Amino acid sequence: MKKLCLTLSLCVGLLYGASAQIQKGNVMMGANITNLQFGLDKPNVFSLNINPKAAWFIQDGLALGGDVNFGLATAKGAGTSVSYGVGALGRFYGMTGANEVVKNSRFFGEATVGINGINPAGSGGSTNGLGFSFGPGWTYFVTRSIGLEALLKYNGIVGFGSSAYSHTLSLGVGFQIYLPGQSTAKKVERDMN
Q1: What's the CA gap between 66 and 162, in Å, rounded?
Q2: Using one digit for the tens of pLDDT, what is the confidence trace for 59-68?
Q3: Which residues form the signal peptide (predicted)?
Q4: Domains observed in the chain
C-alpha cells in the first residue's frame, strides 16, 4: 500500500509539479534534440547532435550532473564526421528576470567539462581530449514539470590528434523534465493524507 501511495504521490507531483522546478533535491532530465552548429574550424559543416543530460539540484537553482554527446555531420563530398563526449555538467538558474520577458520562464548558465572528440571525415582536423563548454540559456516552462529551452554554447576541445585545439559555437534546442525530489514527494504524500 505504501508503494502505491508513493507512486500516486510521484504521479501527482509530475502532473501538478512541485512548488518550484529548480528546488533543492529535484532532478532534471532531458536532451537537446537538435543542435544547429556552425563550425569555426574548417571544414565548416552543418550537423545534428543528440545531447542527453541529467542533473540533481544540490541547492535551489544550482544543479550538478552529467551529459553525453553524440553527433554525426555530413558535408557534400566530404563524407561523414563523428563527434562524441561524456562529462560533468553544472547549471545555474538566475533570478526570475526572464518572467519580465515571458511568464513562466528562467534564464540559466550551463558549463560542462569531460572527454570529447571530433573526428572529421577526410583529411585532418581531428581532436580528441579534454572538452569544455559554457554558455547562456533560456527555459520556458510549458508545465510545472516540463521546460522547453534554447542554449547558446561555446565548445572547445584541447588534446591530441591532427589538430591540438578545436572550437565551435552551437545553438541547441531541447527539453528538460523536472522530477520532484524525495522531500517533495514526501510532502505531496503528507498533503494527500
Answers
A1: 28
A2: 999 999 999 9
A3: 1-20
A4: 20-180 (2.40.160.20)
